[in-house]
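Hey team,

Filing this mostly as a record. A colleague (T.K.) asked me to run one chain through the structure pipeline before their review meeting, and I want the input and output archived in the tracker in case anyone asks later how it was produced. No errors, nothing strange. Just documentation.

Input sequence:
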Amino acid sequence: MELAHNYPAPEQVGPVFSVDLMRMAQQHSWAALAQIAAAIKPGMTEAMARQLAKDLLQQSGVERLWHPVIIRFGVNTCKIYSEPSEKDTVLQENDIFFIDLGPVYGGHEGDVGATFVVGNNAEQQHCAAAAQELFERVRRQWLTQRCSGSALYQFAARQAADLGYELNLAIKGHRLCDYPHKLYAGGNLGDFSGTPRAGVWVLEIQIKHPTLAIGAFYEDVLLPDVELLE
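Output structure:
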């Protein structure tokens, strides 16, 4: 158990916080996201997909949602969470979409997001893959260089350009911990001057295609590889 007063103010957590439980919450969250992604089909509206996601999350044993389900189709994949989608957007036969979930399992907050493609559009497939590749490059930078949160997002912007995409710096990661993290701390990872601690920061990556009206999203909690803990 790690008590809140053992952390500096921007990284405070609650009295039951555990990195192991954060990892467990992420594992359950990723399993739920995979199930939801497999069930989303062309012809659905975003509203239909969100309801489907909520139903499947309930079946997964989720305790609550700490943020609403966010699902974006097509041109809406360029928008951040606070921007409304184009109305009545329907997933097409060749299309791109992303899912962003914030479930709570074991009293700890999960936060996962990933982008998927239906059909065989090569540009969409490349964009989705680039978001995950960029996330992995930045996470590896965190693991090996132990740099600040702000330096991580500067690195991310350069790597996004290297991949041929623009990083959306309107979202720069955020805090997480045992529910609810907002009692203890907030703030963006991209504005954090310290080295991010494991299990309390979410790395968010959202990119935009340089010429097409599509984007991609990928996020996960910053956690070390399991083998590094052994």
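Quick notes for T.K.: The beta strands are 64-73, 95-105, 108-109, 112-118, 166-167, 174-175, 201-208, 215-221. The helical segments are 19-39, 46-59, 122-145, 149-163, 226-229.
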